[in-house]
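TICKET: design request
STATUS: open
ATTACHED STRUCTURE:
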């Protein structure tokens, strides 16, 4: 499937998705609307304009990907209402519900709301998506193609679940990066030189993630595989898995709950 695409916003996420579409052969003609000009490294056949009024009049996109910041959406969205009813609108803006887009584009617009995450920049992202009732099967397939070019895709039937998705997988990379930071600091506290401690922490998390990706075993079983009875790993896990407020599970549960609540607040 090769589609005509209009990408509104070409920051880190938009640029990563565009690179994925090109690599996967999912993009035919592409127009990018980016007020700050063409980012480095864009394919030569991508037309970049600074505002919607500069889009060629004969360009008819199959999909419009809204990759601008949520706070810029009110200003940007009205410029594309003319495509409602013909093009698929795929939004990756956090906190903007389908009802918001239907209000501004009309009740006949085909909309998919998605929440990707930053590992999309290296083709290892995951997006959760929900369509509105106007999306045809072909448009849902197109949305899947566009999102799967940068990672996995999971469809949800209940849009309200995207608040928890945002807190878990949208914000989740930051939790992993924080894990690396804290592991490295803990190594320093145990006597390791800072550079070595960070090298060990980074490589351990990267390698563990790749092992998890390639293995058919669950995360729980992989954890058990590393844990010898009465060994060093068990001693450390007794701290991390402590019940109550001192354990990792409680901390992450409260963190994801806080992120979910904030996502709901942003959605209004």
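STATUS: resolved
RESOLUTION: sequence designed for all positions
ATTACHED SEQUENCE:
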């Amino acid at each position: 499937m090769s589609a005509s695409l209009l990408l509104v916003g070409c920051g880190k996420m938009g640029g990563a998705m565009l690179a994925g579409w090109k690599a996967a052969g999912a993009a035919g003609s592409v127009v990018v609307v980016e007020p700050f000009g063409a980012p480095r490294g864009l394919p030569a056949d991508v037309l970049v304009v600074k505002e919607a009024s500069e889009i060629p009049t004969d360009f008819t996109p199959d999909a419009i990907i809204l990759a601008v910041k949520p706070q810029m959406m009110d200003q940007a969205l009205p410029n594309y209402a003319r495509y409602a009813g013909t093009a698929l609108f795929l939004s990756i803006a956090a906190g903007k519900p389908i009802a918001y887009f239907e209000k501004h584009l009309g009740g006949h617009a085909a909309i998919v709301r998605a929440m990707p995450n930053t590992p999309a920049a290296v083709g290892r992202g995951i997006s959760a998506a929900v369509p509105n009732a106007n999306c045809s099967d072909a448009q849902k397939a197109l949305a899947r193609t566009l999102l799967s070019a940068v990672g996995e895709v999971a469809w949800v039937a209940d849009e309200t679940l995207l608040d928890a998705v945002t807190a878990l997988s949208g914000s989740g990379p930051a939790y992993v990066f924080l894990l690396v930071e804290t592991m490295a600091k803990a190594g320093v506290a145990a006597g390791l030189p800072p550079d070595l401690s960070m090298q060990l922490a980074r490589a351990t998390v990267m390698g563990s993630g790749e092992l998890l990706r390639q293995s058919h075993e669950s995360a729980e079983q992989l954890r058990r595989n590393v844990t010898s009875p009465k060994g060093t790993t068990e001693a450390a896990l007794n701290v991390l898995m402590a019940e109550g407020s001192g354990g990792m599970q409680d901390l992450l549960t409260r963190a994801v709950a806080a992120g979910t609540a904030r996502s709901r607040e942003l959605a209004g």
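CLOSING REMARK: The mean pLDDT is 93. The CA atoms of residues 41 and 90 lie 23 Å apart.
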